[in-house]
């Protein structure tokens, strides 16, 4: 479509300067014939005019945009949406996320026949991010939302697992979306249980009905199956126990459930579909197919629980789901099944929404729900549980020089390894602190005053039970440091952070071990929070004046940098005589040495009559540690971060 078709140059100029995204496509190939300046700015470095839409914007393949244009061309029916998320991949490999309000309509000739398609949209990314940021900053809004949430919804969330195991041979993720209707929550549930033989049991079930009764029955059935599978029962035995329970409880009658056991070493998945939809297998090659139904009966209706065993290769993914993802308004069941297989395969391969740093299981659970329900909505609960068989991670072994400067190196390497094995932010936070304290302990107590220092060895592994086992070994002799230690609280802090800690001194050195289970939360679909810009672990300490009596501390405060923090704060307060507000929100790591330094400065102020006001955003690493050690401070909910926001430390 050239200037001669637009007519007046004034109209051409106006169309070019329209402050929204415009694609004009022609013919069945949807060849792009015109885009305006705003659209070109969205995709720098691309020459899109004259190319088919699917070729020009191939990076959005799998995100439903190209299919919608094709549908409008075929039917002439317009399509519109609000705040749809899209991700674009630029030629340099960088990714841009945006949200749009859009309309896609037919471009017709004078005789009414369809010539092409016109898509127009407004970029509302800033509006969406601003709204999300405002919600995060405003604790009052969050509290009002929690208070007005239906009690049944809260009950169902409480009855679902707190988290999913992180295992060496499988990456597991789940997603749940509660019913989008006035009926409130229903009886969907999921579970993933690590068994005594290091296999993992996967469960997705659906109780008939909605409301308090359905949620209560769901919790009881989940407990029965969880206990039997956790004790080592096979699929048939566990279902038989649940069936006996369902026969005694009328509200549990006809509950459907899919239970399977994944053996990651042998590469098999043995399952039963007790009236439930059959699992979906997405192979490492990207092919998706539904597994055979085993013909099992719903609970309380017959007690027949046939089994089927399927081979699962490395890279293959098993998806269990509830029928809410299939039974969507206005979509035939056969069409919905095909869409589920297609969307899950694209998400697993990373060809749908581009979410860097996520696993295939996470993408399948999160993106499949987002992409399939945003156009149609949903009436029933939707639950997805995915497990991908993967190669076990290697053991992390670090030999670190026995110097405090090694702490940052060890902490960064540990965080990278933990992220690789699938640990969540909460567990990375906990393990960085705990292992950092034990490394400091080994350096200070094992080698202090020793002229020839051997390295300190850190060994970390992910056990078949889904636990981190870490060992810190030195070859020195246990002794009190020759200089006064800043810490004195390291082992106490570590014991509060992890499930099990042991320190065994010996003639040839000291061995410290910890064990801590890894869990990842299930995904609750919704807009992705914008980045917070929080300082990354391992950044050097910085103390910056933000006012005459205010400073902002950022970076890492460990045994190496704690003396600097103490010196900087005492310098600014003239030894504790002047008042000072210390904002610790940007501190990414606060070790016990840093806590001791703060205690020292607080004590100086108390002695001199000055006031030291410690502050940290709610949910920030510093605020969590200050709460743990009971150091007086102010938690500022207005600066709430997304790092562990509102989540308690594991016990």
Please provide a written account of the structure:
The longest helix has 23 residues, at 425-447. Strands 2-1-5-4-3 form a five-stranded antiparallel beta sheet. A five-stranded antiparallel beta sheet has the order 7-16-15-12-13, covered by helices on one side. It has a five-stranded antiparallel beta sheet with strand order 8-9-10-11-14. Helix 9 runs antiparallel to helix 10 (235-248), helix 11 (333-348) packs antiparallel against helix 12 (360-373) and helix 13 (406-421) packs antiparallel against helix 14 (425-447). The chain has four domains: 3-129, 2-Layer Sandwich (Beta-Lactamase); 150-389, Phosphatase 2c, domain 1, CATH 3.60.40.10; 396-520, Histidine kinase-like ATPase, C-terminal domain (Heat Shock Protein 90, 2-Layer Sandwich); 542-639, STAS domain (Transcription Regulator spoIIAA, 2-Layer Sandwich). Helices cover 33% and strands 28% of the residues. By secondary structure, the protein is α+β, with helices and mostly antiparallel strands. It is built from 18 helices and 27 strands.
């Amino acid at each position: 479509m050239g200037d001669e078709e637009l007519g007046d140059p004034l109209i051409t100029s106006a169309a070019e300067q329209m402050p929204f995204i415009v694609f004009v496509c022609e013919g069945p190939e949807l060849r792009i014939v015109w885009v305006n300046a705003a659209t070109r700015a969205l995709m720098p470095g691309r020459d899109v005019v004259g190319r088919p839409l699917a070729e020009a914007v191939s990076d959005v393949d799998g995100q439903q945009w190209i299919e919608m244009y094709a549908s409008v061309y075929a039917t002439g029916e317009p399509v519109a949406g609000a705040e749809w998320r899209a991700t674009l991949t630029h030629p340099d490999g960088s990714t841009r996320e945006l949200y749009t309000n859009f309309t896609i309509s037919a471009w017709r000739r004078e005789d009414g026949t369809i010539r092409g398609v016109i898509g127009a949209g407004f970029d509302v990314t800033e509006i969406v991010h601003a709204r999300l940021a405002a919600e995060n900053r405003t604790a009052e809004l969050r509290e009002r939302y929690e208070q007005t949430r239906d009690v049944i919804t809260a009950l169902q969330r409480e009855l679902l697992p707190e988290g999913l195991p992180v295992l060496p041979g499988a990456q597991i993720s789940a997603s749940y979306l509660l019913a989008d209707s006035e009926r409130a929550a229903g009886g969907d549930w999921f579970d993933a249980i690590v068994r005594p033989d290091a296999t993992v049991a996967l469960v997705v079930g659906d109780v008939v009905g909605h409301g308090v009764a359905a949620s209560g029955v769901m919790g009881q059935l989940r407990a029965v199956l969880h206990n039997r599978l956790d004790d080592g029962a096979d699929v048939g035995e566990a279902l038989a126990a649940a069936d006996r329970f369902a026969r005694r409880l009328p509200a549990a009658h006809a509950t459907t459930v899919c239970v399977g056991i994944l053996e990651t070493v042998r590469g098999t998945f043995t399952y039963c579909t007790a009236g439930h939809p059959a699992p979906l297998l997405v192979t490492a090659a990207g092919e998706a197919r539904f597994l055979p139904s085993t013909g099992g009966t719903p609970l309380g209706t017959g007690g027949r629980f046939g089994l089927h065993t399927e081979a699962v290769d490395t890279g293959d993914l098993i998806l269990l789901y509830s029928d809410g993802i299939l039974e969507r308004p206005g979509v035939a069941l056969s069409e919905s099944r095909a869409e589920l297989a297609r969307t899950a395969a694209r998400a697993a391969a990373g060809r749908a929404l581009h979410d860097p740093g996520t696993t295939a299981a996470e993408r399948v659970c999160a993106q499949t729900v987002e992409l399939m329900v945003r156009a149609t909505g949903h009436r029933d609960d939707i639950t997805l549980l995915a497990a991908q068989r993967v190669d076990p991670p290697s053991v992390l072994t670090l030999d670190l020089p026995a110097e405090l400067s090694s702490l940052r190196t060890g902490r960064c390497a540990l965080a990278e390894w933990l992220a690789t094995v699938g640990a969540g932010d909460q567990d990375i936070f906990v393990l960085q602190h705990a292992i950092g304290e034990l490394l400091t302990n080994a350096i200070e107590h094992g080698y202090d005053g020793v002229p020839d220092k051997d390295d300190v060895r850190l060994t970390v592994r992910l056990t078949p039970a889904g636990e981190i086992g870490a060992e810190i070994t030195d070859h020195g002799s246990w002794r009190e440091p020759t200089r006064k230690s800043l810490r004195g609280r390291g082992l106490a802090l570590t014991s509060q952070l992890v499930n099990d800690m042991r320190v065994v001194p010996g003639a040839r050195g000291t061995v410290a071990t910890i064990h801590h289970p890894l869990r990842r939360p299930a995904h609750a679909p919704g807009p992705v929070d914008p980045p917070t810009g929080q300082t990354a672990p391992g950044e050097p300490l910085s103390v910056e004046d933000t006012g005459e009596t205010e400073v902002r501390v950022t970076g890492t405060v460990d045994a190496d940098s704690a003396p600097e923090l103490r010196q900087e704060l005492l310098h600014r307060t003239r030894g504790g005589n002047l008042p000072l507000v210390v904002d610790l929100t940007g501190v990414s790591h606060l070790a016990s040495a840093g806590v001791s330094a703060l205690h020292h400065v607080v004590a100086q102020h108390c002695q001199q009559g000055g006031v030291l006001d410690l502050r940290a955003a709610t949910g920030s690493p510093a605020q969590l540690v200050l709460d743990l050690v009971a150091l007086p401070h102010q938690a500022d909910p207005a600066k709430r971060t997304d790092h562990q926001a509102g989540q308690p430390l594991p016990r």
